[in-house]
Amino acid sequence: MNHTFRTLKWKRHSTAIARKRLRRQRRKKGQTLFNSPKYFKKISAPAYFSMIKNPEGMVRFYHDFENVVSTGAGVDFDLSQIKVMTVDAVLYTLYFFDYLKSKRVYYFVRGNEPKDQECKRIFQESGFYKYVQSSQLNKTSYNIFPIESGTSVDPTLAEKIIDFTRDRLLYPKSKKIEGVFITLVECMTNTIQWAYEKNYSLNKWWVAAYYDKNQNKIFYIFLDNGQGIPSTVSKRFPERVAAIFKKITKQQLDTTLIKSALKGEFRTRTKQSSRGKGLPQIYSFAKEGKISDLRIMSNRGYIDTVDPNNCEELSRKFIGTLFSWSYSTK
Amino acid sequence: MDIYIKNFSTALGGRFKKEGNFSGEEFREKYLEPLFNGKKTDQINIYLDGTEGYPSSFLEEAFGGLVRLLNDKEIVKKRLRLVTSDSMLEKEILNYIENAL
Q1: Which residue among A177, A188, A273 places its CB closest to the CB of B99?
Q2: Helix H segments across chain A?
Q3: Can you give the residue ranges of every domain in chain B?
Q4: What is the complex's ipTM, to 2 decimals?
Q5: Region A29-35 average pLDDT
Q6: Fewest CB atoms less than 10 Å from the CB: which of A28, A110, A143, A276?
Q7: Domains of chain A
Q8: What is the end-to-end Cα distance of chain A in Å, rounded?
Q9: Against a cut of 0.80, is the pTM above it?
Q10: Which residue in the set B11, B14, B100 is minimally distant from A274, CB to CB?
Q11: Residue from A157, A180, A277 whose CB has the most chain B CBs within 10 Å, to mutate
Q12: Would you state the pLDDT for residue A94?
């Protein structure tokens, strides 16, 4: 081989040419991965930045977010007007970034922090900065078990969350909190087993917990970016028909399907009677009081097991499935 | 023969080995299946206390899976003796054994 092609100088030169070519190609396709977008559009987060307290507002917000990003514009993520924030919304924001990546949507986001001091503290201590590029340092908090993510069933992590719970509620090490532990593991198992079709590559879940000192309660949030419970459970023939005409009939189909899966009405796609036991087990814990405040969001369904009148069909699709529940001293 | 599940793990996982650690399938293969090979007839005491809890997926695959493997629920019911302070847990496992086939 000619000596010219082996020198470091030549290698640098050819790499630079290849990078230029790639940038030109990406600019042609409208992709802006390596270059900043020409303009940014400001999107203001809802004042109630909480999936569980403001589900409709939040799904609309992320729908708008995705619309802006898909035009190639950058996003100015304005959190300054937030008055109420819960960790589930922070967690969902991280998940949403991952979701965009999985769809190969290139995005540029810059943002600020809430002006409200309490919301700012929650945001800084949630673990958000561990997952994004930022000049801000990730802060730890006594009250928050920061966001963790995974792609397999991780009972060891679930045990750490139980240790966090025991510690904050001043329980001895021997005290079992099986309702919470089993709910965490079953949620992870559902993510890996049911959330995805066989050829879907990104099986991922996120989990976080936080201690509310005023209520002496621990709140847990679990989120996966799968297809959602209504999409993955087995549908009866009338339901399959109803799904086609959903927009016309305005039925609460997704909400109904989630409720049915929770009740264990033989919704497992495998049709095996030995399967599909996880969701009914979680629901039984909520009914028995082993966990409290169980809320589920999946596709267009929002279930509030505390107040059944609060169940609703959302106007926009919630991507993935979110479980939220709490535990306190009895 | 005594088996303490807490010695396998205090934090139990899901159904299959491919899903993650300390699954029902892993427990069954390591601890239960070897005891049902050949013509063994001795009683097996399974001590269930001392873990953080039992996900239904774990239990069904460990015990229900054993029945499906042997294609015989009677021999499983005859040889396994569940030892626990939680009677509901014992009931749940027996239910999985009964309905495995």
Answers
A1: A273
A2: 8-29, 55-70, 87-102, 117-125, 155-168, 178-194, 229-232, 237-244, 246-249, 253-262, 278-288
A3: 2-98
A4: 0.94
A5: 49
A6: A28
A7: 24-116 (no CATH), 142-328 (3.30.565.10)
A8: 78
A9: yes
A10: B100
A11: A277
A12: 86
